[in-house]
Amino acid sequence: MKIIAVEPIGISAERAEVIKKELAAKGHEFVWYPDRKEDPATLEERMKEAEAVIISNIPLSAEVLSQCPKLRFLDVAFTGLDHIDMAYCQEHGIKVKNASGYATQAVAELAVGLAIDVFRKITFLDGSIRQGGVRGAFLGRELHGKTVGIVGTGAIGIRTAQLFQAFGCKVIAWSRTQKPDVTAMGVTYVPLDELMRTSDIISLHVPLTAETKHLISKEMLALCKPTAVLINTARGNVVDMDALAASLREGCLAGAGIDVYEKEPPLPETHPLLSAPNCVLVPHVGYATREAFDIRIDIVLGNLD
């Protein structure tokens, strides 16, 4: 089988050589590209002879996939699959497997980190002190004692709930599927509108589907306390970004910490969150830790067996 990694996915050149030898011993050919190219022409050129492709979150359209007649397996070094034309894969017998679980801890930690940053204005104060600023009348807020609403109790949502509980937060949750082990943690499931009304911190952990697109709508945001903050480390389109920016500008929401957007950064200069107040923005790094990447490589290689 010809296996092509169309991007480095955190593998060093040295590790790639080791993997190449290990797969050769099993009768496979392994090709590894050390750079990331997202344009369709390059993807088609790299993938055209592949029987199996390793890829992370680079979009794969039907047009690109149609140029890969030998392709039978997509080994996705990522959790979500919404960047891949799954309908084409199903129609053409291309098996797709993700790397679920590799970044659970990494994303959960970032969600908590963003909440702390928004509450304590770490990013803002860093910029201020570098320009000669002082504390003045600034007062931050603590996580302890706050109510955290977890939207989506998959693995990442559960781990995020545990971390917030460790800070002394009360955790409530909404999910399409309620899990007894989550209830056993002391988490109470509530309707989404109640979660939005009562939470001090709302942390999103749902996949992007037709049902969850703009789940956090203008109407849902209008329910929030003016002191509440929204954290999104899930998928950008789960939130109506225009409505979120308006809520921040109008003081209907105290702040937001955002890791994901409608499309991968760079963001256009006109993106509404770039001018929104009290909004900490990071360039989709929730999954990007050394530890998570090491776990991911092992999962991806295991998927080939």
Task: Describe the protein's topology.
Elements: E1 2-5, H1 13-25, E2 29-32, H2 40-47, E3 52-55, H3 62-65, E4 73-76, H4 86-91, E5 95-97, H5 104-120, H6 122-130, E6 147-151, H7 155-166, E7 170-174, H8 180-184, E8 188-189, H9 192-198, E9 201-204, H10 218-221, E10 229-232, H11 241-249, E11 255-258, E12 279-281, H12 290-303
Parallel strand pairs: 1-2, 1-3, 3-4, 4-5, 6-7, 6-9, 7-8, 9-10, 10-11, 11-12
Helix pairs in contact: 5-7
Q: How confident overall, as mean pLDDT? A: 97
The biggest sheet amounts to: 7 strands, parallel
Task: Could you tell me the CATH topology label of the largest domain.
Answer: Rossmann fold
Contiguous low-pLDDT stretches (5 residues minimum) are: none
CATH superfamily of the largest domain: NAD(P)-binding Rossmann-like Domain
In what order do the strands lie side by side in the largest sheet? Answer: 8-7-6-9-10-11-12
Q: What is the helix content?
A: 25-40%
SSE run: EHEHEHEHEHHEHEHEHEHEHEEH
Supply the number of helical segments.
12
Quickly count the domains.
Answer: 2
Strand-residue fraction?
15-25%
